[in-house]
Amino acid sequence: MNREFWEKYAEDADLHYNEEFAKFIRDLVVSLRCSSVLEVGCNAGNDLKLFTENIDSHGIDSNEKIIEIAKKKNPNVNFKVGKVTKLPYEDSSIDLVFTHGFFNYLDDEEIDEGIKEIFRVSKRYVVNCEIYGANNIIDEQNSRKGRNMLERWMNYKVKVISNVEMHEEIDPEKSRFVLVRKLA
Which CATH superfamily is domain 3-182 in? Predict the structure, then answer.
C-alpha cells in the first residue's frame, strides 16, 4: 500500500465526495429495509454522509488519520480503525456491509480473508462496487487492480441479486455493482 498516496487522499477527502453514489447506497439500504450498515474501507466516510440516526451506520478503515477526519465530518456514524482481515464486529451483526473501490487497492493475499470476514459480519446483504477485472493492474503507481467480486462470492452461501456495471452518473469509474444476499 502506498502510504503517501493515502495520506494525501485523506487531506483531499472533500474532493472525493460523490453525492450520487452516496444517495445510491443510502437509498439501497433504505429500500432493502436495513437498520444497520457498514462500509469497509470507508476513508473519510463520504459514502456514509447521507445516513441519518435512523440507520445504525458504521465505517472502518486502517488509516487512523482518515478516521479522525471521518469522525469530525460525520458525528452520526460509528467509525473505527481496523482491518478487513479482522473486523471488530460480531457475527451476523450488520444488515448490509459494502465496499466502494476498496478491493481494487487491497493486496491479493488479503482479499480472501477480507471476503470471509465481510461474510461473517453480514447479517443479510453484501454490496461490492469495484472496478471490474481479473486481478489485472489498472494503476501501477498505486497498486490498483481490477477485481471480479462475483467470482469471489461463488465460494459462499449467497444468492446473487445483482451483477451489473454502475451507471456513469452514479460512479464515473463505471465500477461493477455486485449485490448478494447471505443465505446461511
Answer: Vaccinia Virus protein VP39 (3.40.50.150)
